[in-house]
Every structure is written in structure tokens, then in C-alpha cells.
Amino acid sequence: MRIGQLAERTSTSRRLLRYYEEQQLIVSTRAANGYREYDERLADRVLQIRGLLDAGLPTRIIKQILPCLDKPRAIHFPDATPEMLATLVQERDRMTERINCLVRNRDAMDEYLAVVSAGEAGAGTGAGAGSGTDTGTGTG
């Protein structure tokens, strides 16, 4: 597929896709006319990259862990330093905290929606009928 198709499929700008390629996060081939050609499987890869970037990982770390995202998994890091491993542990822990926060927020929204939905259902059956109506107090 061409860059425009990949951009559309992943909701990622062409400029950002070229940047990912420059950072060696994705690879393209060149067609005879010079246009970039991308493998269909790169759509998932781009979405993974975007998710990792959104989680706060820098591209240099993403480049290192991309092989872990492939199936079958091929994990081999000849240049893994103690600093890099410490960074990954720190980032993983930060992601876990963020996930926990998102789960708490989602659960709170679910509770709110359940209460509001129950209230609307009750209002439709007459339980809330008459609220907000003029009670004849001489205001109008």
C-alpha cells in the first residue's frame, strides 16, 4: 500500500509516517516510480508505535522493543544496557499507574451512567412527573 493509504488506515499523518521510517520504526520499499510502498502488516505496527509514544516511551526505546511485539516473538537485545532496562522498568510502572487511573475513571463513569440512566428510566414512568412545573405560586 502507498503512504496515503497507510496514513488513512492508521489516522496518522504522512509526515509522521516518514518520521517513523527515518527513526527505523517502519520500513518501506520503493516502487519503480519512486513511491513508497508499505506492507499491509505495517498498519498494526504503526498503531502499536502510536500507542507506545502516547504512553510516553521515546522512539529509541520503542525501536528496541518492537521485536517483542512481533509474533512469533523474537527477543534478543545484544545492546541492552542496565540503564535501558531500568528505563523500561520505570516506563512499565508508569504505564501500569496510568492504566489503573484510566480503569478507575472508566468505572466512575460507568457508575455515573448507571445512576443517570436509572434516573431517566424512572422519569419516563412517572416517578419524576411534575418536577419543575408551576405549582401555582403566582409567578406567572
Automatic annotation (TrEMBL):
Listed SUPFAM superfamilies: Putative DNA-binding domain (SSF46955)
Stored CDD domains: HTH_MerR-like_sg3
Domain HTH merR-type: 1-68
PROSITE patterns in alphabetical order: HTH_MERR_2
UniProt xrefs under InterPro entries: DNA-bd_dom_put_sf, MerR-type_HTH_dom, MerR_fam
UniProtKB keywords: DNA-binding
Keyword DNA-binding: yes
Superkingdom of the organism of origin: Bacteria
The UniProt record lists the keyword Transmembrane helix: no
Protein name, entry field: MerR family transcriptional regulator
Originating species: Kitasatospora phosalacinea
